[in-house]
């Protein structure tokens, strides 16, 4: 058996043992997300516009990640609406920035991997860069919106008549803790993965000026920054959606 | 007068934040003028004239359009400053390695010593756009989190400095001590980050213990699986930007990549359990352990997805190129996505294992009365 399948089985067993039913559904969401990612590449390679593909696939990935990971229905619904709003807001940032900064496709450092390949494939690589950036932020957005929505719905459960302004303050204070630790997840996630590239830069004595203008480096840092912006936006937006839902729910009760 | 002072005192945080944000924006603008600081020759595009375009078809029947344009640039620094050149730029519609230039772009150019050779554009100057996005992220961080956001920023900065230092040491030793070097670096990262977030306390020690144990066991399990399956399907040769032996580099990347997520999770679980004990001092160790599992259960799925999407999104452009170059899905997957997949799975194992470890450590090592200490 291949290493990937054995590691996958180990992960599945561990998630089932420790997470029970939640663990099984979380593992399923991982498999679905992989399928969706691969589908996204295939669709783009068949000529579908990158922007449309990322919107549709992004919406589905958020749904799988949020509804498979959270049992509380009200929290999950709030988290999903908030995550969708954040995704659209982020696209409005990512799209113009990617067209301004032109850090798409490949760089001279990729030459060896590109040997014998035809690069004139008729697919806009700026569009692909937009897709990459959007999809890489979705995990962080989903995680943050779930955490905040779950925390707030617990507060509402305990104090059903909590005021909207109080709820907002609570949401921001939960958000502060989340942003602090999510910073680390993102920082290590991206930069740990690019150790080889940094060794390359240092080993070949790239100047500071050439590193901060390098296509690959810029593309990588942009992804971290977009994810960060996404997580920061998630805090007030999730809280806002939660207050709306709460107001709606209390009105119906009266 | 007193009233004004009070007003100022109450709002100084907001004013200071706005000031920092505004100064930052000016700083972003100033990167348009930083050409004298560059060793490379920087030029500004003053005029662009479209030339001709024609349709191309490659051997896999992909159609593309190749364009050429005349670009007029004015040199901004060093001894050619002020001179203008007119040069030809060719680019494709897909823009995999080339791009169109627009009026107002700043570019790096190469001016050869002998007059006969042509002046060429080396690439776009991206620092202004990058600074703008960084400014946007920081401004939002400061506006929402005020100055507690600075602590998170400080920890990232310190970690980046350490990371840089470790790379320098690695290069000096030619990658000979990669495991020792980056293994200790991972521990130092964890200690430093958690110390900045939690201070030196029992809570920090428990979190640290959970992070290191969780990651450690995940690595051991993975190495056993590697040995048992003889690393079938792990295509180290497909690793990008490799200048040293790929296998150790890959393992180190995986450990560093998952470290932040495991810390994130352990911090959440341990903090909630310490709070639980504070609220209900008579709760038994077993109940604490069970609550820990309960909390971890809801975090692990989303967290594994965070890393998975980060690791996989990177491979998009190359995967697409493979597919359009007539490769089948299986080969394309194994050459581009399999390493990211292995990385995600190992990280996932670490994230799941940290849950029982953190819960168990917290349930045994928590002082009886947290509030009294």
List keywords for this structure.
heterodimer; A: 254 residues; mainly alpha; 9 helices; B: 373 residues; alpha+beta; Multidrug efflux transporter AcrB transmembrane fold; globular; transmembrane helix (chain A); UCP031503_TM (chain A)
Explain this structure to me?
The complex is a heterodimer of chains A (254) and B (373). Chain A is globular. Chain A is an all-alpha fold and 254 residues long. In chain A, 84% of the residues lie in helices and 0% in strands. Chain A has one domain. Chain A starts with a helix and ends with a helix. Chain B is an alpha+beta fold. Chain B has two domains: 37-125; 147-365, Multidrug efflux transporter AcrB transmembrane fold, CATH 1.20.1640. Helix content of chain B is 62%, strand content 13%. Chain B has helices at residues 2-30, 127-145, 148-172, 178-198, 202-229, 246-279, 285-313, 316-324, 329-365, and strands at residues 41-57, 63-75, 84-92, 106-110, 120-124. Chain B has a five-stranded antiparallel sheet with strand order 3-2-1-4-5, with no helix packed on it. In chain B, a hairpin with an 8-residue loop joins strand 2 (63-75) and strand 3 (84-92). In chain B, helix 6 (246-279) packs antiparallel against helix 7 (285-313) and helix 8 runs antiparallel to helix 9. Chain B is globular and about 85 Å long. The mean pLDDT of chain B is 90. The interface between A and B is large, with 127 and 134 residues. Chain B: It comes from Lactiplantibacillus daowaiensis. Chain B: Keywords: Membrane, Transmembrane, Transmembrane helix.
